[in-house]
Specification:
Blueprint: H1 2-8, E1 16-18, E2 20-21, H2 24-32, E3 38-40, H3 42-48, H4 59-69, E4 76-79, H5 88-101, E5 105-109, E6 111-112, E7 115-116, H6 119-132, E8 137-141, H7 152-165, E9 170-172, H8 179-189, E10 193-196, H9 203-209, E11 213-215, H10 219-236, H11 248-252
Parallel strand pairs: 1-11, 2-3, 3-4, 4-5, 5-8, 8-9, 9-10, 10-11
Antiparallel strand pairs: 6-7
């Protein structure tokens, strides 16, 4: 049921706006704010744990976060980097474990350090995962643009289509930020396209181009770091506390959000 609910969000009249959390409090606060679904940011999870991103170092933290937030009253999708494990069967085991916790989707990327996984290897990985766990929305990410590869405009659509043909429910192409590239991906992929939120192309324009999902990526985590340091400096300089900061009691209550009855609230969809 969660899978069907999450899948439907990719086929609405407007793109799914997907904020990404790094701990229980951030996920609960975003769900409470009214967002239709919540994702996780691998950078935020890794940085909060004092570990590098995209280095297969945060499997334990990722599963622990998924276990903590899967009970929220909105669908949750989890960034599992490249699957954390070299064997497709073990990646499928991980996705099955997440599904059993109540997770609705995962991001699975083809980036391998400064290069990309082979297309055949990645399509096999996607196929193994989807056959094992068909009721999880698999968002297949290609890092052709993200890694700055010179042939990314030609490479990304080919990979996106291959991943869709292998069974991916959607494709994620971070770094694609021109109308031409996005139009090519939308028309040639055959499944919902996910891009990062970006100042160059506002949400309305991305919707017009046919984008189905707009992820915030690590932006909110980085913004939170900036706000923390800025507030500390302002107070040190004798400035006032800015309005709008949640109270102690409000933050303390976040661990109950989604577990109590009557906690749903309307908001951005």
């Amino acid at each position: 049921m969660t899978f069907a609910r999450f899948r439907a969000l990719h086929h609405g009249d407007e793109p799914l706006l997907l904020p990404c959390a790094w701990d229980h409090a951030s996920a609960a606060a975003l769900a409470r704010a009214g967002f239709a679904a919540v994702g996780t940011t691998s950078l935020g999870v890794a940085a909060a744990a004092g570990k590098p991103d995209a280095g297969r170092a945060t499997l334990e933290e990722t599963v622990a976060l998924a276990r903590s937030i899967a009970s929220l009253d909105v669908p949750v999708t989890v960034d599992i980097e490249d699957g954390f494990r070299p064997d497709p069967g073990r990646v499928a085991d991980l996705v099955a474990e997440l599904a059993a916790l109540g997770v609705a989707g995962v991001n699975l990327e083809d980036g391998r350090g400064t290069a990309l996984a082979g297309v055949q290897a990645q399509t096999r990985l996607i196929g193994v995962v989807k056959r094992r766990v068909p009721e999880v929305f698999l968002n297949a990410r290609t890092d052709a643009f993200w890694l700055g590869l010179p042939d990314a405009p030609a490479l990304a659509p080919v990979r996106a289509r291959a991943y869709a043909d292998a069974g991916a429910d959607g494709v994620f192409v971070p770094g694609a930020n021109t109308e031409r590239d996005i139009e090519t991906l939308v028309t040639g992929t055959g499944v919902p396209l996910n891009v990062l939120v970006q100042p160059e192309l506002p949400v309305r324009r991305l919707a017009e181009l046919g984008v189905a999902r707009i992820s915030y990526g690590s932006l909110l985590f980085r913004a939170a770091l900036h706000a923390a340091v800025t507030t500390a400096r302002e107070l040190a300089a004798g400035g006032p506390v800015r309005p709008g900061i949640p109270s102690y009691e409000e933050v303390e209550a976040l661990h109950r959000y989604g577990r109590d009855t009557g906690t749903g609230s309307p908001g951005p969809r």
